[in-house]
């Protein structure tokens, strides 16, 4: 996923490619509350199973709603995979004007669904909604930074950490097959996807000469180690071995990773492909994806299928793709169904159903296969939302935690107008319509607005810090990634508190050279000196990412004072030119001084807010409404009966993070556009549920819930 056009917001979005598309490519006329705009009739179901002629029924139709009975391995048009362990001569082939699978023509209708953004309890329900829409494939990325949280330590669902249940990729792929869906597999190593650091692990940045996404030895070895762990875990799930995987992407939009028409690092791309082959993926179709009108064939590998990513200029992109590879079928690997949101943008980005339908049909008139990006966006839980760098103000644009994307299904998996349109268009253009059944769409899951939770306890920042290990230095503050923690992997996410003691004269000047990465609060003897964001121009001032070499006047009385600087990592950039990936978080670009005194002695405390730490916090005190933030607040949500999906409404709070039973839902920030955090029911339990909020500025006395999202 990428940025290649501007949308109507206070933060201009610059080109992901060398050009810009027009503003009309995104519409902001959709109501802020998507649920309210969706008629109850969505989706329009196909005929009831019992009313179908017997020759159009399938076991998958009759078992669709029974979780104990997954769909059998029946494939559209007789494209069943071979029995496990028995190989077929060829899988997906891209020759001539049409793809073939098992020697038979196939038009691919796929949708993007990131298993790591949707609670695993909802995987099957979502896959069934995709199949009911007429899709025959699902596409997914794999996030390196989740699957290898610490160098050499891999998580495919077994580590027992908060996100581990989301990472059982093998079960996800098998479930897709059980629901009659092929799989388009995009393992990276880089995935973009509005995901923290484009899916790459931050421990790479401990190498100060690191050149990510290149043939640089340090990156090459790290990527190979990841592939050597990931690929053998799923290699037997290729179509030719009885599994669902039919195609595998090499890297991701590599044509955009460079400058103008300079040659790209093809040696690196070939290295990734060869590693996949060495790990047993010689039987699946390899492909690359880029925007043809932006990068032509700069990200291509000789002999590897090129596919297209766009949501505008349909004819220009597909004509150029045909020109570049005239004897191969067309595939739109990313038809952008909506768009993503940045903090401070002022709007929830949308693409109208009318525009969606128009582009979809224009693509289908080329007899092109298609992957809808996104079919369901889901959520960038925790601190996993990425960011973009811009050529114009405010230079850096962090993403919100919601990845609703105005997709075909909402963040919570609900139907939209685009779902019905998708069903209609696929039925119109799928050559197997009338032969293959459309299962009945599953019912929508119930939503509720739970009663408000009263804040009853709190922990002050000093008490919180006292429960964390600190690192002392005599050489000035260092970046998060360089800290000797997490088995020498550094700090990946969250906040870092820099503290020192210094003599402050009246009107002393604090000077931070370079930029803060990304936001800073200055605290003197427990009092917050910096002000919260109030207007767009604030990001140019002290404590924000866009300010450079800034000064701040401190209160002083000719006495020794404790000076603390709390720095938040708002998300590493997930897309851009090579120099945009040289990013570290915290205070590190230049020295920090008070008046003429350079401050070198610091105590640095990483605040990562891991689930294990949240669940073991001590020192809670009764909350009487007078505690100054930053601080941690706690209340209890009582759930009677079966838990239901809900949203945490943080409009009366300032800025921070919400945890439910220790699980990090994501960030909130009063300016928005997003005002709620999605809380899927499986994260709740019947009875008492602990709600914890880390608030940086202004705490409220209660936590409110909503039965609809507030995205603007």
UniProtKB/TrEMBL annotation:
GO terms for biological process: carbohydrate metabolic process. Residues 1-88 are annotated as: Disordered. GO terms for molecular function: beta-galactosidase activity. Residues 1-12 have a biased composition (Polar residues). Residues 99-428 form the Glycoside hydrolase 35 catalytic domain. Its EC number is 3.2.1.23. It holds the Pfam family Glyco_hydro_35. Keywords: Glycosidase, Hydrolase. Coiled coil: none annotated. The keyword DNA-binding does not apply. Residues 630-689 form the Beta-galactosidase galactose-binding domain. The active site is at 253 (proton donor), 334 (nucleophile). Residues 490-608 form the Beta-galactosidase 1-like first all-beta domain. InterPro entries: B-gal_1-like (IPR026283), BetaGal1-like_ABD1 (IPR048912), BetaGal_gal-bd (IPR048913), Galactose-bd-like_sf (IPR008979), GH (IPR017853), Gly_Hdrlase_35_cat (IPR031330), Glyco_hydro_35_CS (IPR019801), Glycoside_Hdrlase_35 (IPR001944). Belongs to the glycosyl hydrolase 35 family. This is Beta-galactosidase.
